Amino acid sequence: MSDIIDILLSANFWAAALRIATPLIFGVIGALICERAGVLNLGIEGIFTAGAMAGWMAVWLGAGLWGGVLVAALAGGFFGLIHAILTVPLGLSQHVSGIGVTLFATSLSYFIYRTALPDVSSPPRIEAFKPLDIPGLSDLPFIGPALFQQTPLTFFALALVIGTAYVLYRTPLGLAIQAVGDNPSAVESQGLSVYGLRIGAVVGGSAIMALGGAFLTMSAFDAFFFGMVNGRGWICIALTVFASWRPGKALIGALLFGAFDAFQVRLQTEVGSFVPGQVFLMMPYLLSIAALVVVARRADYPRALLVPYFRGQR
Amino acid sequence: MIRFEPRGPVSLPRMIGVSVAAAVVALVLAAIPMLFAGLSVFGAYGLMVKGAFGSLFAFTEMLTRASPLILTGLAAAVAFRAKLWNIGAEGQLYAGALAAVAVGTGWVSGPSYVLIPAVVLAGALAGGLVMLGPTLLKTRLGVDEVVTTLLLNFVTILFVQMMLEGPMKDPMGMGWPQSEPILDEAALPKLMDRMRIHFGLIIALLSSLAVYFLLKRTVWGFEIRAVGENAAAARHAGIPVTATFVRVGLLSGALAGLAGVGEVAGLKGYLTADLSPGFGYSGIVVAMLAGLSPIGVVFAALFIASIFVGADSMSRATGVSNYLADLIVAMALLCVLVSGLFLRFRIRFVGAPAAKEAAE
Questions:
Q1: Smallest Cβ distance to B158: which of A111, A112, A278?
Q2: Residue B342 domain flag
Q3: Domain count of the fold of chain B
Q4: Is B334 in contact with A235 (Cβ distance < 8 A)?
Q5: Are A184 and A191 in contact (CB under 8 A)?
Q6: Residue B15 above 60 pLDDT?
Q7: Which of A106, A235, A259, B308 has CB atoms 3.0–4.6 Å from A46's, for a disulfide?
Q8: Domain-located, residue B269
Q9: B172: domain range?
Q10: Residue of A nearest to B159 (CA)
């Protein structure tokens, strides 16, 4: 028991929780923007992979770290655009299109990586983002190491939560995005373009998702591995429901998830000799299913989610 | 501008034509990554055709690869017919393989005519049970099955790894995490000498006929189609929607489980955690290319299998990554999705005045 308290009181633990939460924050915010506009984006898993590969490769080719972030976002936006065109003006199945985008983005990323680097025994490394040292803040006891020794992308993710909440609730654009996911014909009658808003939300949301992938190769690690996304995208889709499509709750959900994950990794070193490692590796997926079950009854889905809109048709 | 005008019932030749066109477009688009990798497009396709059809061995390898794809394709087709989004065939395949190994490596003994059916049933049951969870979560609690089935893929594969490193590890396996070999009496028979093609293909073809019969000629099949068309209306008409979902879930999972049985009891002979190169996900492409038709699934699976087997062979000859196959398969899915528009709509290009007229 005292071991558990020790874990929860260590600054290291909370730093790890925030680090694990960062790609999920990007993913959930991206998914939330798409779904608020009425489009489920199951391309997320592939978009994570594409962001991870494209960002890493841009840096490896000499684009600089922020150049890499930009390239990752563009790659995400590109696959988002494919999904948007198929599901918004063409009104095709969002489930199948999303799975298709995931398969396409994943295989294209792997193919490009393998073609550019045919035979490397160990993946080449880049100089990844380093934790920021903020004078004053980083030296605070406990809070300093827990909160203020993260890489810039983590702070970017936190700022993105605030920015998304502001845009979604306080600007005409945000209100229009919410409306287009609830009642698109009302939006059309306001003289706004349903297609424009939905396509824009899916492209923008996908660009944000891709940053979650970029965090993996440019902050958490410094190289690209096959299968490194490992279901994080799907976890984000579950967390989006858990967060009731709200940016603030998305942050809390991702942090809770990060804390659980950081906790089980530490628990593993305590009891790892009795329990097989796979039990711990299963936890994130089981936890995501549990999170879905908890909120299933009262989940308040955007009303037009999954419903294609055709102009002039009621 | 472009106008979509809804079409009536679709004729079979048109359905086939649209799927074939989608496959052809995917193959044409694949020229882009081929050129990027420095391949000559015709040369590469030549190698792929030779690799999948060039010899008796190549052809039987293609059929061997098609067997699990037919089954995972059927799993997706049946589920999608009812709009039950089972994306978990990959995990269900592993569950089926694990059950086959649990039964077939000495836990029970007996002659082939007892052991083979036991292995097959165990695998189907295990796959069905893995799908039962998400189905019940959907029908009882309203939990979206897309995400739960996707997440369960990871859980199931980790569970298989755990068993292979723990209780089911082969003590004679030189430390590798693999199961004990399947008993000779429990192994599916080979169909040809010195080839790898096995009885799993027959199971797959029979399953395709069985699913066709079920959907076309039985009350359950009618109910599945009705629920898929409009669940609310089906419920109104007195169709037991919940029970239908449960039946579909069990059947879909069982079909994916059978794919695992074939791979482990027909092909490999023992279980490792890298048994499937994504057969579960490719099954979705197979089902969509087939227009969710159980007979069409067989032909779509042959196409996808020839891409995979052909690309493997092309990759060995040229050194270009065989992820090209996954890329072609993914593009085929997107193409067939778009081509579906040509089935449901008549697409008219109308001039500006006509469009204006239509708007008024």
A1: A278
A2: yes
A3: 2
A4: no
A5: no
A6: yes
A7: A106
A8: yes
A9: 68-291
A10: A278
